[in-house]
Write the structure tokens for this entry.
Amino acid sequence: MEIQEIKEHWSKTYSAEGKPDWSHIFPFYSENIVFHDSIQKIEGKVKFIEMCNRLSKRCKSLNMDIYHIVKTDNVIMMDWKMTMAFRFFPSSPIYGASRLTFDNDGLISEQRDYYDLWGDIYDGIPIYRRFYRWFMRVFFG
């Protein structure tokens, strides 16, 4: 899969208005996909599709801006900003990156998403932002 294909297909997945639709990218995933992010680790295409459908059901809207994509032999890295709006909360941007690893058949066998979920959410809440950033600075760096 080439960079332009990734950008084209993944950009169609998300919408500034309305629910996301991943159905057109599921064929690019291996039956044995391993998805891992800050919250969960999921193994198998059926469970991966179920996870995507749960997220779609929970969101009023979900938009993704892809900034950069880099490709090596069997790995694509992309950095992005995802803006999610849930039913009872205002939209929140989350900044992150995804690593897609391809198997010998050209299918995605692993997707690892990297992001700081709580940091990006708390940055939008003044009281929590100060406490969370203080806590992270004092205890982690």
Summary: The chain has four helices and six strands. Residues 11 and 122 are 26 Å apart (CA to CA). Strands lie at 29-36, 41-43, 59-71, 75-86, 92-102, 108-115.
